[in-house]
Each structure stands twice: as structure tokens, then as C-alpha cells.
Amino acid sequence: MTRRLLGALLLIVLGARWPGSATSALRASAPRESRPYLPELRTLSAATLTAQSVGSPLPPWQAGTLDIHVINTGRGDAALLILPDGTTMQFDAGDGGAPVGSPRGVPVVPDGTRRPGEWIARYASRVMSHYRTPGIDYAVLSHLHDDHFGALPELARHVPIRTMLDRAWPEYGDVSGGGTFPATDAYVAFARAEPSRMVRFEPGRTDQIRLLREPGAYPDFVVRNLFANGQVWTGAGQATRSRFPENAAALPADDRPNENESSAGIRVSYGAFDFYTGGDIPGRPRPGVADWHDIETPVAQVVGAVEVAAANHHGNRDSTNAFFVSTLQPRLWILQVWSSDHPGHDVLDRMLSKRLYPGDRDVLATDISPANRIVIGPLLDRLISARGHIVIRVERGGGTYRAIVLEDMDESMNIKAVFGPYQSR
């Protein structure tokens, strides 16, 4: 079936505009060869495969679809991906940032009766309900800050994690040779309790995260490991080059590679669709430090243009530099935010600037704090959504995708807004 015919059918079903204004909600009408523990897919009835409509629960994932769930807990980054054959991947699961109750942060959502790890697990269990024995195939930890890894041990207590990719495993020592990472005893104990599931994240590779159920059914799907520990993919084969200097261990402590600069990141590609996420890498180093502290620029050179990008470092003031913005040129920006300094005013200005790249773009955020709104003011009015779980649903083949905002104050999974469909480039 041609992409044009698919588009026409979608228009009939959804009553949408093609490709439509992204700022209008669509109110629709009706790593191992042998994995014997892989859950079996349930067969979905035709009645469950309903259109995405405001006020209704999110329809289940369908085979051939790529779902990217950006989960808001108010306490850190958390994204669950359901790949086209049903393979699942968690990218970060945070529980950290400003102390709970601080005016610099936002409340835990849906509420404070459970820790974020359990809320993430409950969300994951709902969207993976098409499996007879739910479990997360891969979990990727971008770096060892609690707003990225703090919820992982709790998540794993409720939902099995089968393979864990960690940029620091197994040493948990500083890449520059001086000091240790700020990993908690709980996370280190979690990692070392089951060493058979732990894998060191290796930049450049495309075989560490792969389709496990029907690997031959979607040949145009790939997850590329882009960078970690200062090693950045070159764009050729699996080759990488180091962004960190050879004498990093001899530098003064304040000048050595830090935890954010050591983050791991990936690009998920499905046909013409590309999604980028990269932890907390910076792109605007502190005044007076060496240029190599800018990790975004060499990363942008190999990522290229994408459809959807998660802003680095929650849109903090040291991230999302002009070169990064003008190179990735995403149609959709995602801000995983919960603090008064997320995003920075200048960062949001760059993301929205048509001087940096032409054309329309939309920005969605998980939870803009009241304090941030006071500082940034009217610029935040240009976001199409400032609060809620965000689901990027990519249709079979990657030609079109939508952004769906879900209610985060309860577990209804009810749709608050639908934007799109967008056409992949």
C-alpha cells in the first residue's frame, strides 16, 4: 500500500488535516540469539484497535508501530520504547533533582503515595499489557545522576529487566582516573546483584539493542549507539573517536570530564523517521574551559536531521547549542523537565528560532514548573503542551507519526491532546 493511500485512509478514519497543523488537537472518530523467556504477544481484537481520540484511553500498541512513551513522574527522565516487533526498551528512570517539596521542583505525579520507580512500573505494565508475561527487554542508563538512574532499582523490583546497558559497567570509576561516580550504593548493588544481565554500552554499535521477536520483519529499523564516556561515533561503520583529551587524568579536578559529559545517547531510526535522545551532554561549556567540553557539536555532526529530539540536559542553560539545533532540525522537541531551571530561556529561544532552521516545529514538555513560568513568561505560551505524559506514535514503516499527550494526574491513560499527523522527511 502506498504512503499516499495510507494517508488518505488515515484522513477518513481520523477526520484529520493532512499533514495538518501540529498545534491543533485531532478529535477523532471512532543481544542474544536465543531468548526463551521472551513474552508471547496476545492477539488484539479489532475492537481494541480504535482511533486515537481526545478523552479516550490510549489505544494499545500494534505490531509494526514504534511507540516512544516519555513518562512524567516529576522526579526525572524516563522513556519507554516499544519497538515495531514488540521488543521493549527503557531509557533512564530517574528519581532525583530538587528535594521533594522544594519550590524549585514540582510534585511527584500522580501523587506521593508511591516512589517514581513504582509509578513507572505501573505505567509500563499498562502499555505492555499485550504481552502474556510483561517485562522490559532492555534498559539503558545514560549516566549516573539520580534524576536518570534513581528509579531503576525500584522499577526492576516490579517489572523484570532482562538486559541492562550501563556506560560505566563494571568499574564504576571515574573515566578521567580521579574519583568515583556519584552512583548510590543501591544502584551499584542492583547492578552487581545480577551481573549476567549487565552489558557495557559501546558507542558505534547497532547490535547491542536489536529487535528480538521478529528481527527480519523490519529491516529498516535500527538503534545506533552514538556516544558514551566521551567516545563519539564517527559516522563510518562502528568507528569512534574520543572527545576527551589523552591527559584528562592529569588535569585539575574541575577540568576533568564530568558525569554529564560522559552520558550515553542513541538514535532510533525507522524508515524515514529518526529519534534522538542523549542524557545530559552539554554544548555550551563554562567560560574559560577547553572546547572539548562541548559534546553536543561532534554528536550533532553524526546525528544529522531527525524528526523528534529530546533536548539534552532537560533544556538546561549549558545545552542545546545553536549548532546542535540547526543540525538536528527536529519537527518535534521534547523537554523532560520538572525544575525551575528547566528549560533555560535562551535554550527555548534557540529551539524556536527560525534563524537556526526554517519551517514549523513544536515543543512539548512533561511538567513546566510554576517558578520557571514566572521567569520565562510568554515564551512558554508557544509550547503546544506544557504538562503530561508524551507518546510519540510512529506508524508502520516510519512515514508518519503523531504526538499524543496523556493525563498524568491519574492512571487512566486518557488522551488530553493529539498533534499531527506529521510526515517524516
Description:
By secondary structure, the chain is α/β, with parallel strands linked by helices. The chain has nine helices and 17 strands. β10 and β11 form a beta hairpin. α2 crosses α4 and α6 runs parallel beside α7. The longest helix is centred in the first third of the chain and has 12 residues. The N terminus is likely disordered.
Average residue-wise pLDDT: 88
CATH class descriptor = Alpha Beta
Strand order of the largest sheet: 6-5-4-3-2-1-15-16-17
Rg on CA atoms, Å: 20 Å
Would you tell me which CATH topology applies?
Metallo-beta-lactamase, Chain A
Could you describe the largest sheet, including whether it forms a barrel? Answer: 9 strands, mixed
Coarse shape: globular
Q: Helical residue percent? A: 10-25%
Percentage of residues in DSSP E strands? 15-25%
The low-confidence parts are 1-37, 45-49, 175-182
Query: What is the H level of CATH, i.e. the homologous superfamily?
Result: Ribonuclease Z/Hydroxyacylglutathione hydrolase-like
Element-level helix/strand string:
HEEEHEHHEHEEEEEEHEHEHEHEEE
